[in-house]
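Bench log. Compound arrived from synthesis this morning; before running ITC I wanted a structural hypothesis for how copper (II) ion sits in the protein. Inputs:
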Amino acid sequence: MKKTTFSRVAALLLASSALAFSQFALAHAHLKTPVPADKATVDTSPKSLTLTFTEDVEPAFSGVEIRDAQNQTVPVGKVQVNDKQHAQLIVPINQPLPAGSYKVNWHVLSVDGHKTKGSYQFSVK
Ligand SMILES: [Cu+2]
């Protein structure tokens, strides 16, 4: 009887630590640092967006779109991952953005196979 209780407690402890571990392992790629920053107002059009995530991302399955205040898509160059920093996406902006506010919609596949998405906004003065 006592032995059973002990093994039950042990099993429970093991299960809860496994859960804690898997929650740690499930840390998906969340947007950590966008440049321009979320809600920032910049003086001139940026030449690119830089989105740094909490995990490395797969560029082939990740994308970023920019929409203006009229909800029109702004043409951007091919999204690239930083060679030296695989958690960082670079989005070239080939035509200068006119003054106004912009919404950035992103979706990424992190190297652990999980998809995440989100959006943020910045303005050009
Ligand atoms: Cu994940």
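What the model suggests: The chain is about 20% helix and 40% strand. The chain has one domain: 28-124.
ITC booked for Thursday regardless.
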